[in-house]
């Protein structure tokens, strides 16, 4: 049952990419033939956004007017791409963004560390972790809840210790018999 920490660590690692979306990046290089940096976009107050833009950017409403113009511009570009996504994918991304925004700075830092741990894994280890997560997702709800309850009953130190000592073969739950390599029980 040491496997529950893996699931939560994976969930945090999966949330981390959406954190990067909410952070500023350096401006792109100027187009060929243009001298100097591109012109600075004008700030767009929340009240000046269209109803569609407000709907898409709703998770950022509270902080929108504090964002620098470049960040606003990037987020508006992402909103344009957002329109082309299927509704299920939109809901999934929105949920992750909202979850990130409600995290404490410590939880965000831990999510970043977990994401880095995931990135440091070999492609084979990442695939094993992904497969384990998929098996967890497909567990009966009662079994999944039991694993999550066990994780939540642990102290923060126990959770960190479990995640820090997780080996590459500590996947959850074991793969089905038809997916095990020959000669393995």
Task: Spell the H/E element sequence.
Answer: HHHHHHHH
What fraction strand? under 5%
> What is the mean pLDDT?
77
Please outline the major beta sheet: none
Percent in helix: 55-70%
- Going by helix content, strand content and strand pairing, the class is mainly alpha
What's the total helix number? 8
Which term fits the overall shape? elongated
* Secondary structure tally: strands: 0
Gyration radius, in Å: 21 Å
Mind sketching the topology for me?
Blueprint: H1 4-21, H2 51-56, H3 69-82, H4 87-101, H5 105-120, H6 123-137, H7 141-153, H8 156-164
Helix pairs in contact: 1-4, 1-5
Question: What's this model, at a glance?
Answer:
The chain is mostly helical and 185 residues long.
How would you describe this structure in keywords?
mainly alpha, single chain, disordered C terminus, 185 residues, disordered N terminus, 8 helices
What does this structure look like?
The chain has 185 residues and is mostly helical. It has helices at residues 4-21, 51-56, 69-82, 87-101, 105-120, 123-137, 141-153, 156-164. α1 (4-21) packs across α4 and α1 (4-21) crosses α5. The two termini are 18 Å apart.
